[in-house]
Specification:
Blueprint lengths: L4 E14 L3 H7 L11 E14 L3 E5 L6 H9 L6 E6 L3 E4 L12 H11 L4 H15 L14 H14 L4 E5 L7 H17 L2 E5 L3 H7 L2 E6 L2 E7 H19 L12 E10 L7 E4 L5 E9 L7 E7 L5 E6 L14 E8 L7 E10 L6 E14 L21
Parallel strand pairs: 3-7, 3-8, 5-6, 6-7, 11-17
Antiparallel strand pairs: 1-2, 1-4, 8-9, 10-12, 12-15, 13-14, 13-16, 16-17
Helix pairs in contact: 3-4, 3-5, 4-5, 5-6
Length: 403
């Protein structure tokens, strides 16, 4: 492992054996059953290869059950990988699931010294840091009470204070700060920024994509135990958000089920930029073609609905829109109420930047909205010139007002 790296993972995998009933676990322990398949294997991680340099702040995003916590526990060495190579270079301090590493029967004081000893501090060093740890946590007089009597907020404040006070080379935070109150969260992020400026390597896992993009210069998106994206935090967050938006739309629809009486809804939406339909879509200003295809189901007792598409900036401001009824386009549907539409923006005139695509299902006059998804996709455009603004308008140059 290079000394330039704080974390090195190569082909790391983690599997768990899942049993249908407790007796199956017992049966699997007998030597004569070891060649038999009892239960099933769950792959939490699949051949993860990852290098993190000293001083990098890396955000980890992904859905619940994607493998984020398993990955962080392997880096923190609280669990072992089933196969592969996992190495760290420096003192590791981890704030994992709530209360991990604490003995509930011990007082807060005893747990501080226990955690300090695990982190490699001597008794003298722990004594020197004790008052600072307690002051930052705000536990006060409760420091000598058993932590089993602590609230979740008190526990996370103490755990964070200990984890960040032992001057780690590598700090791992897994969702724990979502438990603390607002005032402590602010103070915590100020300390994280101090550690970041000091050159501490940080792995930060959070469902708050705003925190990931603000704190981290790099992000990793994990899905089903595999790395889907690894790169600049803003790009990875956008791709992950796009995935979530698309997934939420897909999970909310049942294509063959009739619409609720008096209503209409989308059953499928595809956004295509130059043939690409997944992740953060990338193209070129005034050259790329943006296409949106949609399917819907509606109550046949109602007039056929109409559709609209919006293109917005990251701040939510609508930059352009198109409504089928406004363009005097009548959508069609079959006798079961199923319809479809598509719209194309050739040589899209938006200048460089990141944009959101929204889709909306209106009544036939564009007054009442039945269903919508915004954003349903995110795309990013590059440009060759140095034009400024949002859109390149058609224009020509001349010598007079009449040219």
């Amino acid at each position: 492992m290079s000394y330039d790296l704080a974390i090195h993972l190569k082909n790391v995998g983690k599997q768990y054996q899942i049993y249908d009933k407790p007796s199956d676990r017992l049966r699997s322990m007998f030597p004569w059953n070891r060649s038999k398949t009892i239960g099933r294997t769950f792959h939490a991680l699949h051949d993860i290869t990852l290098d993190v340099a000293h001083g990098e702040v890396v955000g980890i995003v992904g859905r619940n059950g994607a493998g984020k916590s398993t990955l962080l526990q392997i880096v923190a060495q609280t669990i072992s990988a089933s196969h592969g190579e996992a190495q760290t270079n420096g003192k590791v301090s981890a704030l994992l699931e709530l209360g991990s590493g604490f003995n509930p029967e011990f007082s807060g004081r005893e747990n501080v010294y226990l955690a300090a000893a695990i982190a490699g501090l001597t008794q003298k060093e722990a004594d020197q840091k004790f008052d600072e740890i307690v002051a930052f946590s705000g536990i006060g007089e409760f420091i000598d009470q058993p932590i089993k009597n602590y609230s979740s907020g008190m526990m996370v404040r103490l755990a964070f204070s200990v984890a960040t006070s032992v001057e780690p080379d590598i700090l791992i935070i897994d969702e724990a700060l979502s438990v603390g109150d607002g005032a402590f969260a602010r103070k915590s992020f100020e300390r994280i920024m101090t550690l970041k400026d000091r050159g501490c390597t940080i792995l930060f896992c959070s469902h708050s994509l705003f925190q990931i993009e603000s704190l981290c210069n790099r992000a990793i998106w994990i899905e089903k135990g595999q790395i889907q994206e690894d790169g600049i935090a803003a790009n990875v967050v956008a791709a992950y958000q796009n995935f979530l938006d698309t997934l939420n739309l897909q999970e909310s629809i049942q294509p063959q089920q009739a619409a609720v009486q008096g209503h209409a809804r989308f059953t499928k939406v595809i956004v295509d930029l130059d043939g690409k339909q997944e992740g953060l879509l990338k193209g070129f200003s005034c050259r790329s073609t943006l296409s949106i295809y949609g399917e819907f189901v509606s109550d046949v007792a109602l007039p056929c609905p109409s559709a609209a598409v919006t293109l917005s900036g990251p701040d939510g401001r609508i930059l352009s829109s198109a409504g089928a009824w406004n363009d005097e386009i009548l959508l069609e549907r079959d006798t079961d109420g199923l319809g479809k539409f598509s719209i194309h923006f050739p040589s899209i005139a938006l200048l460089k930047g990141r944009y959101h695509v929204g889709v909306h299902l209106f009544c036939e006059r564009g007054l009442h909205i039945y269903d919508w998804a915004d954003p349903v996709a995110i795309f990013e455009l590059e440009q060759t010139g140095i034009q400024q603004g949002i859109v390149e308008l058609e224009h020509r140059w001349g010598k007079s007002i009449d040219d």
